[in-house]
Amino acid sequence: MSLVQQVIQDADQALRYPTASEIRMLQNFCNSGERRIRIAQILADNEAELVRRGCAKFWKRCPVTPSNSGNPRKTASCQRDQGWYIRLVAYCVLAGNDQPMAEIGTVGMKEMYISLGIPLANWVEAVRCLKEEAIALLGEDDSEATPYFDHILQALAFPGTPYFVNDGKVEY
Q1: What is the pLDDT of residues 108-154, one digit of tens each?
Q2: Helical (H) or strand (E) element with 164
Q3: Looking at residue 88, which CATH number applies to its domain?
Q4: How far apart are the first and last CA of the chain?
Q5: Phi, psi angles (nearest 5°) of residue 17
Q6: Per-residue pLDDT for 169 more than 60?
Q7: Could you give the C-alpha distances from 149 to 25, 51, 133, in angstroms and in order?
Q8: Domain range holding 90?
Q9: What is the spatial distance between Cα 153 and Cα 162, in angstroms, rounded to a whole number?
Q10: pTM of the predicted model, to two decimals?
Q11: How far apart are CA 50 and CA 128, in angstroms?
Q12: What is the rounded (10 degree) CA torsion for 18, 22, 27, 33?
């Protein structure tokens, strides 16, 4: 749900018009529209390169992982999911809030990784690498994507979940 939809829904549920501060939020949202569209387009246009660079960075940090096992199917699945996260961030940038994440869901992905035995901490590190690459591409002035990457990182974080570190040992 976009910020516009949320403001209207909140006002309607309270049987009132939008407040002055809500109107200002809508003005800011409209004024930032071209910028949000540009950022989402940059992410879309560079998704494959962001995934490639993010994977390379991740594999340097954690070379012993299922995604770097030599199994092309596992590697392709991990890269597909990384592209999905970039797309999810782009949706949130366009909407101006994290509602697309709530609706599409990162919880289901987390549960899927757990059921498949995929180390969540590795996914957290992989998304952290994607975030770093996206920030490097977008620059500090276009930081709208940062909180959405952070949201994914928080959603995937799961204390006590095993993960693999560089020497192949399991840690928690």
Answers
A1: 888 888 888 888 889 999 999 999 999 999 998 888 999 999 999 98
A2: strand 163-164
A3: 1.10.490.20
A4: 36
A5: -80, 160
A6: no
A7: 22, 14, 11
A8: 34-171
A9: 16
A10: 0.84
A11: 12
A12: -110
